[in-house]
Every structure is written in structure tokens, then in C-alpha cells.
Amino acid sequence: MNVEEFWNAAFLAALSRLPAKQAKKEADVALDLCVGHWQEHYHHWAPQYKTRWQEQRVANVPALLSDDAAPRKAAPKKAERKKGA
Fold it and tell me: Which stretches of sequence are listed as region Disordered (predicted)?
């Protein structure tokens, strides 16, 4: 839901019990309260799941931290070794 959709929903809810002028003010107050709530809790959000190592997508595997753990190049084939020698 975006800001416009939220404000419209709040306005229509207030309009069912208040005159239009007061409903606009109440929708503004509701929007301010909602925005303030989410701004206060912006850093308190965290996903409610944990992905096990073997279940994560290959593209999301974090980079290795040390050079020792880097993949090693395959040894050259015999034909390639003879050319260089």
C-alpha cells in the first residue's frame, strides 16, 4: 500500500462517520501517525526466517574472505606442458 492508497482508505473510513472537512483532517492525522510509526521502527525490522547454508541460492553465497579458500586453477594438461618446455 502506498501513501495515496493509505490516505484514501483513511479518508473513506472517516467519511462514513464525519463530514468531508473533518474526514480530510482525520485522514491526515492517520497518515502522520502511520508514517511516524514506520519511521520509528525502520531499523527494528528483520526477516523472520533463516536460510540454511545448503538451501540458499547459489547466486547469494557470500564471497570468500581469504585467498587460501579461493578455487585453484587446474594443472595444465601434458600437451600444454610440452609446448612450454
Answer: 64-85
pLDDT tens string 1-18: 889 999 999 999 999 999
Cα angle 17-18-22, degrees, rounded to a multiple of 5? 150
Please state, in angstroms and rounded to a whole number, the distance separating the CA atoms of residues 45 and 37: 12
Residues spanned by the domain of 16: 1-42
pLDDT single digits (tens) 35-53: 998 888 777 666 666 666 6
pTM: 0.51
Residue tagged 579458500 (cell numbers): 69
**Are the beta carbons of 25 and 32 closer than 8 angstroms?**
no
Domain count, the chain: 1
Taking residue 14's Cβ as centre, other Cβ atoms within 10 Å add up to: 20
Is the residue at 14 inside a domain? yes
Residue 29 lies in a domain: yes
